Amino acid sequence: MGETIAFITGAGRGIGREIAKTLAKKAVKVVVTDIDQSAAEETVSLLETEAIAVRCDVTSLNDVSRATNEAMKAFGQIDILINNAGWDKIEPFLESEPHTWEKVIAINLLGQIHTCKTVLPQMIEQGHGGKVINLASDSARVGSSGEAVYSAAKGGVVSFTKTLAREMARHKINVNCIAPGPSNTPLLQEISTYNEGIVKALEKAIPFRRLAEAEDIANAVAFLASKEADYITGQTLSVNGGLTMA
Prior knowledge:
The chain has a single domain (about 5-180, about 215-240), classed as 3-Layer(aba) Sandwich (Rossmann fold), CATH 3.40.50.720.
């Protein structure tokens, strides 16, 4: 196989943008998708590789299908799928409302189901295997106060990944999870505006005494997307500075 094409969701900023930059440095061509078209285009402008920006609302199966078709028209194949798009709102469960639950589940769980439903058939038809890396969270493994439904959604991602890994193995498609711990991202910065002290508390709890940077997560994703990880599937890799160890 010559060129390698990656389809990344939520790549308009934060971890998704850093994943795109990291893969681009490894000569991977990138489909940068985001619900914010201008943010996706900004990411493309930063990449040292051939890339396109595609608007994609992962909560809509039809929109994901359209975005997948655009990627296929541009590059003719998708070899790596990275499900990075995510969203959260930190608040006690009993103070949360159904519209928040629905948004959290739609983006964090259904979004990954939608992309796998549309991209995996393309990978199978291509016949040379592929890599799927789903972004979960350590909250899926140990829970996280104020993130009940988010933790549930990410727990679903972990289970979904394991099952897909079993079903896709005969097609030589690896399916794995990255579970970030607390990370220095725009989303956390937004959360900290209404939850003062959260960053300092997290830093104190992490053995390395710092939040994960986007490149920490991106480097782990790049490893699972690489040939060196060809015999790894169905796994969840925590990237958390030692906050949880399991």
